[in-house]
């Protein structure tokens, strides 16, 4: 069932669900300060959402920043992400510009993992290869900001991510109805049973909060909370999130 991927000292897919929090500051100085606060909050993984910086400064030196963040984060693993506007991010990029931005993030070799969007099929294989070259783990993702596909479609999408070379697979959907959350959790169970990589899933929005809190029961390996600001609808403060996922893990492990 599932698999285990190590990001520094963090075993994703083993034990308690891991807590990730985003770095969303739109300026260089604020980004480094935010990294300090995220580290102090005790998260398991820090995700740098570089699209926030690109939206305010398109010429930002992306290749230089992962190393600076690495110094601020200490032992906390760093996930590098450029989220497209179509999937809830801050920038609209064609495939070439997206590949260039992700490649710049990887160039320094300071990231522990990189998020690659499944929808970027034309450039996805080359970016997977580039991540392998610099020793970064690959998380392939899909974000539906308008609704929730069927459980079967979500399970197929997660399988396609694994087939594309993902070390970790992730899907986030938007819950408009409680049944959307049930479909997401069903797809999570299916993927966790059938794939040999860690599975990360969540339903965004107020109705989806239960998926962020109790995802471990259904096979999700990582949940996302916030320290300074949320990067997606439904994220809650990591301190409150840690209390709940700890309680769920304590009882689920019995």
TrEMBL record:
SUPFAM superfamilies linked to this entry: Aldolase
Pathway(s) served: Metabolic intermediate biosynthesis; chorismate biosynthesis; chorismate from D-erythrose 4-phosphate and phosphoenolpyruvate: step 3/7
A biological-process GO annotation: amino acid biosynthetic process
Keywords: Amino-acid biosynthesis, Aromatic amino acid biosynthesis, Lyase, Schiff base
Catalytic activity, EC: 4.2.1.10
Catalytic site: 143 (proton donor/acceptor), 170 (schiff-base intermediate with substrate)
Top EC class for this record: lyase
InterPro entries per UniProt: Aldolase_TIM, DHquinase_I, Type-I_3-dehydroquinase
GO MF terms, alphabetically ordered: 3-dehydroquinate dehydratase activity
Signal sequence range: none
NCBIfam families given in the database record: aroD
Subunit organization: Homodimer.
Protein name per the record: 3-dehydroquinate dehydratase
Lineage start: Bacteria, Bacillati, Actinomycetota, Actinomycetes, Micrococcales
